[in-house]
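>> received
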Amino acid sequence: MSKLKENTIQKDMLINVGPQHPSTHGVLRLVITLEGEIIRDTKPVIGYLHRGKEKLAESRTYFQYLPMVDRVDYLSGFFYQAAYCYAVESIAGLKIPRRAEYIRLITMELNRIASHLLWLGSFLLDLGATSPLFYVFREREEIIKLLEQLTGQRMMFNYYTFGGVKMELPEGWPASVLDLCKKLPKLFDEYEAIITKNPIVLERTKGVGIMSAQQGLDYGISGPNIRASGVNYDLRKSNPYSVYDEIDFNVCLARSGDSYDRYIVRVAEMRESIKIIEKALDRLPGGIPEKLKVKRVNCGCNKDDCGYCGFDTRLMGKKLNAAVFKPPIGEATAMIEAPRGVACCYVVSDGTNKPYRVKWRTPSFSAVQILPELIKDRLFADLMPIFGSFDVVLPEVDR
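>> returned
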């Protein structure tokens, strides 16, 4: 080979994927070193969506910060509100009424299904399939309508509060939820009929992005991603919170730890969430709203627009004044099983009406960390199936 040809051959090529790429599920930037079509090195670049969610808590009261928590992960706001509330309630010694706990559980599981549905549609879109995206949005819309009917919001629900939930279930709401729970399994059957044994899906995901159980544990991977590698760890079972210990359900597992098994686990989890919701509605303390005799208290101000009069003692165990709510000096960590894995909220109180510190530990951050190891020496075409299978949401990463 001549020296001229030798000098003009470029072995490696550096390319940017993102931060505007649609398949990075937000604003993730991947700096990838390619040798031909083989990925030799990957450097995730984060921070494009940093909003200072932890620092902002220090300049706001506990109640002022509460509406901001939904935005840590805009696809699973109920879970992050629950984690924050449980941490603050632990410091303040607040007891949550069982009816409120059941309502929290029902709304979280509905949120889990909605989150998994959006993941499923976007994951299949990453593989080149467009039809499933329309199907999952059809079902997700039904869930969002129910949550909007309950909270008044479609994404940032702001429904939980310290000591319980903010308002009673609307009349007819439980019946609507049960009707949807009866419809969803047949629709999931339709999804699986066109996805689970689809030869293109199998070719793109089977044996692709294999994460061993030990790898996952080393990187702090949790949720469906680690359960797809055979690790039987689900906080709802291993360290129950809310009233999950009163509901019988199965932990969904797979063994190979590849992109396909991560799909299998999430579909199974949606089916299991339906069973959890049905059982919780059947055991809902106090019954359905139409038959509920509400016991209310009055703060004595006699104002029509008072935020504390008409307080429902079945939904909140203790009347709180948002302006003067000051948990005692202390600290607490709350962990919940969010759709993408274990989410932790660490709160430090210095006895004032503002948190001294709030820190979040989110599962998507760990998933981004392990990505370079899983895609090393793989074809560039495998990047999106692997990354998409981990269900990363960038607001969780940057906060």
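>> The radius of gyration is 23 Å.
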